[in-house]
Write a structure and sequence with these properties.
about 30% helix; homotetramer; 9 helices; alpha+beta; three-stranded antiparallel beta sheet; four-stranded mixed beta sheet; 2 domains; paralog of FGE (formylglycine-generating enzyme)
Chain lengths: ~425, ~425, ~425, ~425
């Protein structure tokens, strides 16, 4: 018989191993670079997720726990003001020490103490939520790791291959529109399971009638927008979007390039001809919004998205394209794809729910302090772990960003 | 008997004259400077508002109308992409010609043609809405004029007086909390009168129970926040707010300074000792948000604000402190002050209402393209014309801005 | 009989009046703008030159002198660290007060006290050098005034005329090469007359044989460089020059533009077709240097320039094109033009002469602290006063600047 | 008997091995980072120096030579416009591939072909100068490697040790002043041996009498400047130097820091207490110039330096502190130290000698295009190879830089 404690330990080790598995194809050099301020070097992700367990569990609650190294607290705290001073984010790529080997040793040390802690600490039940937060936190960083690895390799003129290509279905299903009737709906997380504080607070919203597409926009549909001069027509764009396009000379999604043989795209499988039936990804909110306007449609609000996805697929379908499927790109899966594949931009700014309350202490900085100037994305991506995502999960990014696995679902009023 | 046409002409001339009246205390030099990218030189406001009538009425619809000057279209278009190329906003202060005198001649020329147009054009009825938009547009610029004049004079070490001080009531009323019961409410403009497209689309929202303060925060209350170290405590701030404070070394509202005699403040009446019973103004959203958090409270959403103000003062009280009262600063008016005094930051990002549709053509750029990364403010200020404001009026600014007459009203869940 | 004192007073008043004369064609608005960090608003020049007399003569030595206004010291000090705090240079265009009228009153007040001082002070002889420095300083600012007025008017799409055009000779003389024999030469100012500290210290240099052109490069010669693709050929440029060209998209001298009728140029006489026989002006050191390289030639060193000009025109020829000729542009004058017309870039960085010693106190900051990263120009321009220039005069600007009246003379080794 | 060809091959291999020897103490991660735009990642140095031989010898002249990889030409060209497009310098730290292992394979491949070439090519004699340029170029990069390794390790809060400390003499000799008599002197390189084009052109200069110190400034002398408030006294600084100090909050040489135990310094031997008898290093020209002014002295010109050093030590003394001594820091060597230890800032801007002519083709870009806005340094440092330096060697850096091994020698007129 497996005990709860054994299950917990297994889950802990399994999540931790996944981070290392994702890094297995990398060369040592790949762990160091930070070619964009939003990218963190892989070595930093591996150390920071480890620091999270050390800082929020072992150091305060571990019996006689001695931190692995006195400077790691300074080096690997990300943004927790209440946890103390930290190395500047923009300068993570300037550091070459501790080495990757030392960071793996750090992980091993913390893992051994964590296993010990999970077996013997009399605090383990009251701290279960912090433990789970640490694991969910590491799963978030696993997805960031994939964004960052793709950015590091995909901005190198040698276009290195991260993993070989695994073939997928190559046709796009017809688009259907799903109708949601006006009325009061319940939004947000209720009940027992783990969730972030930003989802909390079951509350009511009124929605007017709307329709939502049952599939996401494909690369082919997006190409039509490009070919119709979408990037050059300022009228389609939010004012700040038009400025972003002009200043950065944006002409296509990130990683697209055109050579003699036509449109190519850097993927985690190396440089590839674009498959236009696959879902579009690596678009900013500005691009998603302009595309929708060009179609005479709009993006859904996050409430519309949540209500519709709950009606269409009330339980999470496990055949979705999450990180476990190891496609490492968006693919056609044959069915509806509210889940997995690409994070879908909504038209909703990221703001607190009505009854939002940040947790006390440094953990309260996890979500709340970012609730301005960002937009909500929903549904998870091919980089998300399937036991990490939830129906009420709120992801968020600044509207100009697109190094993450973002995509577009359309909606309309009727 | 006064005809409708006479009323229209009178209103046209009256609005136009108000712009010139606001500039009367200025020296010629004051019309030229642009000490902040968000500030426009007063000469530009006077010309741009005139261009609006020329470009959207006289040029397309005026009989044989000849534009005053061929280059003014380029010089005085603000941001209307569909109206053609324009001079860069950040470089408005680099221009010294046309002179103020020439701009007044431009105004006179356009006014004469507009009066003629209003009397004789057979288009005057179908264009009534564009005319009214032009007048409302000019009233918006009149308020911007006051922000910009204050910024220009208030950042000059000589601290020139714009107008002499007019005395006001000097005590703050006790704060009461007004309760709104949960339920579905109607939001947005319905019915006939003029309104901007961003208010349009009467729609339903569900609100949970909440309470809202019947008076705005005073300078004295805000001083307590300063003295309690509010600016130094990063935990009170949104992450981007904390960065804004640090980078700009913000330690108090704009225009506050401390000398040997204590706290002083630049006002349109020159440098003055601060009256701590008056409403706080010149705070950014970041400051309003941090102040509310420090109080254990929050800002209202724009929907909460609209519902509460509709219940508390269903008709606009004309004793409010609008620009016509000529205080040119926030004062205590003895009653509730949902209207006038200071624009009140809400916790709502500026986004389209459910049924929002931009008008066709350049006029459609008026509001819609700014619906990202800004926050809604409600209620008008001491710089607003009383026939310009409405219950459903949505003003909007970026969260870091504070050269406008912004202030704070608090709310709470119960 | 005119006394020395009368001569001094006359000269003082004459220099002071010249500043006001140069400003006579301006509108009030033109006195305010600062469209480039290197440009100062004309109102600032008028006040700063006045402050110089107030600060270095009247305040320390005037009998019971009371400064005109307590804040002007802060507002109108330029860069004299030892004279105290000052308003930021980059923000001079943000100020609209004191008004132009008030600044003229300030000038009048200081002039009256200066005349009194020149008549009655018993210090007038020992301070003669400071007085003369103040006058030379004002003459330098008169030239800067012309640069800045041209920049302000010439970057306005209305291209206002400063003064009407005065016709000039329209053919370029043939180019002759003047030979200087190798040997030791004396450089720098010796003897009695006024000179800046940076010219001081008669010293010896050895020069190898060289030849120098007896006329400056014309616009026509420079056009050949443009048409030969000079701006696109990185090989012709210093590395920092090539970057400057690329970043600023430089394709021609400042103020040149091409329309349907061919090459046009903004001049102080308004927009004009380019006269290709006139000397080239408004080129940076990078452009002068690349042009010379393209010709297979080089710029002279400042020592070569000084020795050659001393041999060719040992006394200053008074028919040169200085500000008094009122062409307000470079013209062909028929003879050699070492003097006037355009400041000629030399290949010499601006560094101290062997025996250089800065004067004690704030006046010592006049020249010495700028002796890095700038290049020497020689000879004066059409904006220079003829009694301001000297054979040993060293002007200096950063190599990327070209809003001043700069030009090119070529040299070669033999 | 050893043939000339064997000597050449030995020298080639010896220089090449030195680069790899300098990198031996590094971890793979250290090869990747670029924490300052002036720093290049060590992996880049190793590849770029290899590309130099490939691009300028093997590709054009090697028999059937096939470049190692088609993209390396783009990746590892530094600034040779005439050699084609190249990866942006500021983004060298963004690249993680080719890996260090692949770069070592690249080196091996090129070395094998070079040895073959040196043995068999019938071009080897006529290309001897390009070969030597490639070796001297690699030696320059070896020194840069040390600057960059120190910067990468020294800006890491773990302060890793590059090599263990080797003890040295710990007392400073008394300072003597050496007199040089006025007269004409010959400057620049003449005769056979290898030299850069910027040294070429034996020419005459006249020098006035001067005295020059026979030892460089020590850390102790520099500390007095700090303690006397040198950094805070703007009067001591060039204007651009004072701005550099203010903007960068400079308070001491690079790598100095103060903790509870007093002044510490990062060295290539790790964090160490400062030995105040050792020569000062890591100062900018601005600091060297301000220090000299504070002492009432000045820096020598590069001509003074060359003449004096030729008189004092006409042949290069081999007991100097060059890279072969493996101190990896400046030390006291007991004798005069014109050579080695620290590069000595001169007061001379880096400009062409009178008869300077760039070589044709891309190699002509080696020196000439950098001759603006930089200052000359003389004498070599503890990071220089002893067979790389020459009496006439002109090094150059921008005046604000100080990550290189720069120092101060004083001079004075008499």
């Amino acid at each position: 018989m497996i005990t709860t404690q054994e299950i917990t330990t297994r889950r802990y080790l399994s999540v931790r191993q996944q981070s290392e598995k994702l890094c297995a194809p990398l060369e040592i050099e790949d762990f160091v670079a930070q070619p964009l301020v939003d990218v963190s070097p892989p070595r930093w992700h591996l150390a920071h997720t480890t620091w999270f367990f050390e800082n929020f569990l072992l150091t305060p609650y571990g019996k006689n726990y001695k931190p692995f190294h006195p400077e790691y607290h300074f080096l690997f705290n990300s943004y927790y003001v209440q946890a103390g001073e930290r190395w500047q984010r923009a300068e993570r790529g300037y550091l070459t020490r501790p080495t990757v080997k030392e960071i793996f040793a750090y992980r091993k040390y913390v893992d051994e103490h964590m296993v010990e802690f999970l077996e013997h600490s009399n605090k383990k039940y009251e701290l279960a939520n912090v433990l789970e937060l640490g694991l969910q936190h590491e799963q978030q960083h696993q997805e960031l790791l994939l964004y960052d690895i793709k950015y590091i390799l995909g901005h190198n003129p040698l276009f290195p291959i991260y993993v070989p290509r695994k073939e997928s279905e190559n046709s796009a299903p017809p688009r259907n529109w799903y109708h949601v009737t006006s009325g009061n709906y319940s939004i947000g997380h209720s009940g027992e399971g783990f969730h972030f504080d930003n989802e909390e607070g079951d509350h009511t919203v009124f929605l007017h009638d709307f329709e939502i597409a049952d599939s996401v926009v494909t690369k082919g549909e997006y190409l039509e927008f490009i070919e119709a001069g979408g990037y050059e027509d300022a009228v389609l764009w939010l004012d700040e979007g038009a400025k972003w396009v002009a200043e950065n000379e944006i002409k296509s999604p990130m990683y697209w390039m055109r050579d003699d043989q036509g449109w190519m795209e850097y993927t985690l499988n190396g440089l590839q001809p674009i498959n236009f039936n696959d879902p579009i990804t690596h678009v900013s909110f500005y691009e998603a919004d302009a595309f929708a306007r060009w179609k005479g449609l709009r993006l859904p609000t996050e409430q519309e998205w949540e209500v519709a996805s709950k009606q269409i697929c009330p339980t999470q379908p496990y055949n979705c394209n999450f990180v476990e499927s190891e496609y490492h790109r968006p693919v056609q899966t044959g069915g509806n794809d509210f889940w997995g594949n690409v994070w879908e931009w909504t038209s909703s700014p990221y703001r607190p729910y009505p009854f939002y309350k940040a947790a006390p202490g440094a953990i309260g900085e996890y979500n709340g302090k970012f609730m301005v100037n960002q937009m909500v994305l929903r549904g998870g991506s091919f980089g998300t772990s399937k036991d990490h995502i939830r129906l009420t999960y709120r992801n968020f990014f600044h509207p100009h960003l697109r190094w993450m696995f973002s995509g577009i679902r359309l909606a309309r009023h009727i």
